[in-house]
Amino acid sequence: MDAILLQILNGLDKGSAYALIALGLTLIFGTLGVVNFAHGALFMIGAFCAVTVQRILNLSYEVVDETQKDFLGNPLKVKATYVESWFGPEMGGAIIDWAVPIAIIFAIPIMILIGFVMERGLIKHFYKREHADQILVTFGLAIVLQEVIKYFYGANPIQTASPEALSGVANVGALFGTEIFYPVWRIVYFFFSVVIIGGIFSFLQFTTFGMVVRAGMADRETVGLLGINIDRRFTIMFGIAAAVAGLAGVMYTPINSPNYHMGMDFLVLSFVVVVVGGMGSLPGAVLAGFMLGILEAFASMNEIKSFLPGIDQIIIYVVAIIILLTRPRGLMGRKGVMEE
Fold this sequence. Notes:
The chain is mostly helical. 67% of the residues lie in helices and 7% in strands.
């Protein structure tokens, strides 16, 4: 039972990242009909927003510390951060410690702006083009963004710590009368993803803006004939989708050290999640994300891999093949989609 609960937690952890990225992908495909292969790069940029904020908060200068002496008895020069000098050692240290959550504040406008620029500057020219053209141009954009990050930040992973208060482990098994210790930050990431997903669904379901967007997803031409500028609303949704991917990347940095190819690592899996859930289906993307994350976690158990070596590397693709052979439109896709 302990092993099962642990793998469910691992699955929810992985599924959170899959669901958030797949949710953004589905928002873009459902509103604009664009297959965006640059979406993984947005996840990567979000992660490096956290890296950048952490580096800025750790900027320092040299000061003379009279309390410390070198071997000749001269005062030592030590480094002091600007943040600590402005806010004091205690408050400044806390700000530096909470760099990753603070990065969310800066990542949201940055990612929305990047989304607007991508959509207005490039994506809009491919709305009526074949999906193959969309894939080629967005995949090329992803490679360019990847190389830009590599140029400025290097090729090696960059460690980004979570706040000290959230860096330990918690006995989540106590809820079930057992002992299962799990990293606190991974639990935080899961609840963070639930809040973001719930916020997106609430926005689309209960606001006038969201209702118009959903109507436009169902019948774009009719909504346009009513005098509503649906293109502008879809551009805003592209920015929101970029922000969702960026926030997923920001909060994932303490779990997986950011590197320039992390976007590509998640991109392919996220597209599989979208296809399994159903192209254009937001609930399907979320359901498939968590489902495939849990399946991947169970497939990584030593008991499973002992008689099915390598199954953890292919289980997602095996499930995708089975589902698409039996239900081409995916778990929750609209009837007729991918079934012609």
